[in-house]
Amino acid sequence: MIPHAVVDSSVAIKWVVEEEGSDNARSVSHAMLEAPDLLLIECANILWKKVILADLNPREAGERWQLLLQAPVRFTSSPDLLETALRISLDLKHRVYDCVYLALALQLEVALITADSKLVTAVRRKKSLGIHVVALSDTRMIIGADTA
């Protein structure tokens, strides 16, 4: 079971928009959750895109946004994480904005929970970074289910 973790926007959006993995995303609510404030910008952009694609109407997007603002997440200023995020990004050859979440996980010495399979793969290839990443689909790790 994960008592303290960083979550990214791929997890947070699933709290308010029903998608594959939403049940797993909601199961992390027992943990002490942290995220860079970038999460809010990314989630707002996802809601905008869902309106553009007609998956949500503007009223629904607004309601989902208000729910997201009530999520039990402690936010850290993204600019404070950028130097480390850039270093991680260059090492992984991965997008800086994803690495902001990794920088926070590294700083706090906790796992990052993400539904981004490319990010999971990139981090697991570079074990020398010392960052623990958990795929949202790995329910056993997230909720402490019996693996037997």
Can you characterise this structure?
By secondary structure, the chain is an alpha/beta fold. The chain has one domain: Rossmann fold. The protein is 53% helix and 14% strand. The protein has eight helices and five strands; from the N terminus they run βααβααβααβαβα. It has helices spanning 9-16, 22-27, 38-52, 58-69, 82-92, 96-108, 117-125, 139-143; strands at residues 4-7, 32-36, 73-76, 111-114, 133-135. It has a five-stranded parallel beta sheet, sandwiched between helices. α7 (117-125) links the parallel β4 and β5. α1 crosses α3, α1 packs across α4 (58-69) and α5 packs across α6 (96-108). The longest helix has 15 residues, at 38-52. It starts with a strand and ends in a 5-residue tail after the last helix. The model has no long low-confidence stretch (mean pLDDT 92).
